[in-house]
Amino acid sequence: MKDPVIIEPYNDSWPKWYNEIRCQIVSELGSTIQRIDHIGSTAVVGLAAKPIIDVQISVSDLDNIEEVISGLKEIGYEYRKDNPDLTESIS
Known about the structure:
The protein is an alpha+beta fold. The protein has helices at 14-29, 65-74, and strands at 35-39, 54-58. The longest helix is centred in the N-terminal third of the chain and has 16 residues, at 14-29.
């Protein structure tokens, strides 16, 4: 059985946490990435949400995807290629 979903009131720290994650990713991946966005419910000011910061990383060339995956692993993220939840490839 999965853990229960916990929804929290909006937290003013969520944008700050996203910015910290963003800076860490940019520092590691640099020009490999085209864009990073804070997505999902924690990106909506005032909205209660699961306290998970969703980040979307855009690349201009999928030929570099292994470099992106490797860089994300370097900073502590785990790649799950065969993850049945396609909304969560890297965590």
